Amino acid sequence: MDLKEKIVSSYVAFEDGVDVNTDIHEIRTEAFQNFEKLGFPTKKLEAWKYTSLNSILKEDYSIFPDKEKTINLADVKKYFIHDIDTYKVVFIDGKYSSFLSETTHDAIDVCLMSSALNKAKYKPVIENYFNKVAKQDNLTSLNTAFAKEGAYINIPKNTEVEKPIQIINFTTGSVEATMTQPRNLIVVGQNAHVQIIERHQSLTSNAVLTNVVTEVFADRDATVDIYKIQNDHIAASLVDNTYIEQQSKSVVSVHTFSFGGNITRNNLNFYQKGEYIDSILKGITIIEGKQHVDHHTLVHHIEPNCESHQDYKGIFDERSTGVFNGKVIVEKEAQKTNAYQQNNNVLVSDRSTINAKPQLEIFADDVKCSHGCTIGQLDEQALFYMQQRGIAQKEARALLMYAFANTVLESVKIPEVKERITKLIATKLNVNIGFDL
Amino acid sequence: MLKIENLHASIEGKVILKGLNLQVNPGEVHAIMGPNGAGKSTLANIVAGKEEYEVTNGSIELNGEDISELAPEERAHNGVFLSFQYPVEIPGVSVTNFIKTAINETRKAKGLEDMPAKDMLKMIREKSELLEIDRKFLSRSLNEGFSGGEKKRNEIFQMAMLEPKLAILDETDSGLDIDALRIVANGVNKLKSKDNAVIVITHYQRLLEYIVPDFVHVLYDGKIVKTGDASLALELEAKGYDWIKEEMVS
């Protein structure tokens, strides 16, 4: 039985575990029908031309891991940003771990999607926001069909959330292959501010496929900063579908750090529904072996006087492959739009590949839209210069790569996150230098 | 200290050095002059270990040890410093942190601990004063947007920090106005001791008024064809290189 058939035939069993007489389940069922019709995306779809899921869809995934697994904090502490106080919403094989989590209902809601979907007090928020910005494509529909658990974050207006919120999904490998469908909803009220760190982490070498959907709603004057740390095990694949709807004068930034994993696909979509909005999309990708990272971004400029800033840096070694597809749509009404896009890549090896495609669709006439894309190698003369000053070749290469990626790190607002990413880069480049540039 | 014997070298099949001999002892300053294309920069790059050049014959010894097979960083760890004719811009790496990394990587290679931050700062302060370098300058990205003079001063600042045994200054005077030239030369002179040596590669006699050489060599067509004292530089300045070429022919 192929994976699609397995998923389709298991839906009845899934329905046993949820309340089917709800509006939510109507949405799920519709999404299920959509997935049944569409199936998994193939390379025939333009958006999936350079990313094939075939190799990972062959695994015999367990769709509902039913065993409650516990893990020791000591074993997984390193995956948290643990040197600062944070809220934590942690899942193990798709199930909530109260032991590892630190949620709150004190003025703000940092809790579980399962509660939000079932409890009456959350109903107005769910009705207003759940599945309202997510696209109805193949994999988002698949996630919606099985939407049941994930993080639910609701920040009321004028609230500055002091502590960052970490959303961490662990997979334990208790079965041979695990598929999870986390579903997150983040609603940020007027003039509120929140910082979120998201991570998916497999704890064994068993295959994992995570198909996560995150919807973010930023109301007027809200500020939302999201940091996605993707440094997963080599047998773990991730499809991250993130949809962000912004109202006037809101500022939303998403930093995506892709260092690990097998196949990683980031679908990051911004919809600007007001004026004077700023959308910031940044990424550093450093991969090797046969790893594959695909960034598909969309910024939809709908109203006038908004900005978007994209800066993606990629470093590809050995036989790794990368994709950057940055789509910017500027509607006719969206005059005075400033849209910047920058994508720079270094191919460290002759066998690595990057497919880069800026895609600008501009229907307004008074706009500033720029895009730049470079693909190059490390500067040999710069390497010689550094070696001449006593820095060994490996370290010199690492320093050059770090300096290349550094513009993306400058906008990281949480020092501990910045420090962690710096360390991850040093580890990834196999050097022991501080990079305190 | 440096002993080069019968050095032949080529790049991409083109022969540049054709049997070069040079001996530099501790405490000495050597100037290498010569027309364009004679092989001056090639010599500097080969001693520093640039990989594109192929040494086809001859030997390069530093303190009695053959260094021709060593990587550039290993030569640097042994005390070789090259002040680049065209220092490379490295965006995203500040001058301070670059020099810190260079010093600590060199110390690591020698089995030493990192230099304590306090000592490092003190040294940076002293050496930047020596080269009359504005402190703000040190937090800028290495060589990025620097003027020609700033780049060269920064090279000598790094030399001062790294305290090499053998410093090769490859056209350090090019792009310098007279004030910067004086500052750079003053820096080099202050760093000179009986234990280290300097090779100055230049087209012009100008720099040699400030850094007075013990020996002046004329490099022509891949070989050193004439060696003299400081007065040879003056003679070259006055007469050009043609008489050397004529001497060669006759």
Walk me through what this model shows.
The complex is a heterodimer of chains A (437) and B (250). By secondary structure, chain A is an alpha/beta fold. Chain A has helices at residues 3-9, 11-16, 23-38, 54-57, 73-76, 113-118, 123-129, 138-145, 380-388, 393-409, 415-428; strands at 87-92, 95-96, 109-112, 151-155, 165-171, 177-180, 183-188, 193-202, 207-218, 223-230, 236-246, 251-258, 263-272, 278-287, 292-301, 307-316, 321-330, 338-347, 353-362, 368-376. In chain A, the strands form two sheets. In chain A, strands 2-1-5-8-10-12-14-16-18-20 form a ten-stranded mixed sheet, covered by helices on one side. In chain A, a hairpin with a 2-residue loop joins β1 and β2 (95-96). In chain A, α3 runs antiparallel to α8. Chain A is globular and about 70 Å long. By secondary structure, chain B is of the alpha/beta class. Chain B has a domain at 2-88 and 164-249: Rossmann fold (3-Layer(aba) Sandwich), CATH 3.40.50.300. Chain B is built from eight helices and twelve strands. Chain B has helices spanning 40-48, 72-77, 95-109, 117-130, 148-162, 178-191, 230-239, 242-249, and strands at 2-11, 14-24, 29-33, 53-62, 65-66, 80-83, 90-94, 141-142, 166-170, 197-201, 215-220, 223-228. In chain B, α3 packs parallel to α5 (148-162) and α5 runs parallel beside α6 (178-191). The radius of gyration of chain B is 18 Å and the shape is globular. Chain B starts with a strand and ends with a helix. Chains A and B meet through α9 and α10 of A and α2, β6, β7 and α3 of B.
